[in-house]
Amino acid sequence: MSTNFRFIISATDGKARQGVISTPRGFIVTPAYMPVGTYGTVKAMYMSQIHEMGIDVILGNSYHLMLRPGAERIARLGGLHDFIRWQKPILTDSGGFQVMSLAKFRKLNESGVTFKSHLDGQKYELTPERCMEIQALLNSDIQMQLDECLRLPASKKEMRQSMERSLRWAERCKKSFLAQPDHHKRAVFGIVQGGDDLNMRIESARALKDLDLEGYSIGGMAVGESQAMMLKIIDTTCLELPSEKPRYLMGIGTPDDLLKSIACGIDMFDCVIPTRAGRHGTAYTRFGKINLRNTRHAEDKRPLDEESKCPATRDYSRAYLHYLVRTNESLGGMLLTWNNLSYYQNLIADARMAIKEGRYSDFMAQASQEWNNGDITP
Predict the structure, then answer these.
(1) pTM
(2) Same domain, residue pair 221 and 298
(3) Is 210 known to be catalytic?
(4) Do 13 and 94 fall within a single domain?
């Protein structure tokens, strides 16, 4: 549909793919991890830092931005890119996952979702059409369909109702997207649903494929299923999605999950784990995951990794980071978030190189082992 959105696969290694998504606002090199900027900010980070890391795209959330400061207000202020000082691509989530979490405050039917704001109790209606209107007002580059995200475990009947409703909403989202005057500058992605039923996942993927969207996402993950089931769903679904379109795994993000999902053919990820973990005192490094709250770091003069190019990782002692975390100083969360996002970006960059060089399986095994070392002192 979009004349300015292209995906080119440059290399493959097994099912793993390395490629480039081209948008009017720049290129997204894949596999790509997207830092979560739910409220128009990546928590504890300056946008200039995100840019300097070489990150190509960030994520915003339509639900939260609709409530505050409001999509119409952001539009009057020049759109989300100008508002947050980020001129590279932005993907906006539709808010389906957030609506799921408001089960006690929502009413869901074929038209859409009516819910009360968790901020002030004000009543809102979110339909597929309104969802796309909000994302158009935000002026995001990749827009997500409104879907019904179901928490597991769920009955077969519930999963089928949710999956089929999400497909009908996808059709309405596409129609609404095509009505946007400048839709050719943007892309819309569909979201595969179906709970933990593989046949429903296949049915959903095939139906979305028929809509010929610019990209496809796998949603409804990390809502109660095991990692083994998650990977089985991802692998099965990827086989049904068009190989020439980007595949986005929504809300999944331990390093181990990322590496194994790339091996299934996933191209894009988002997750709050690196920023949330940083704010709570946990560092991700090439030596493993390190809990800076642990008292054994109290007199450790070494940085997290003296060979790192990231200043937060290289220039501050573990003792100082431990002190900042234990005293609840804001700088502690800022430095550890910087470290964690840098680690994720480097991990994904190394994965891309491994795919190009045809050694992804070996790379994944080694990186997974390092990450699973846990809290160690190398």
Answers:
(1) 0.96
(2) no
(3) no
(4) yes
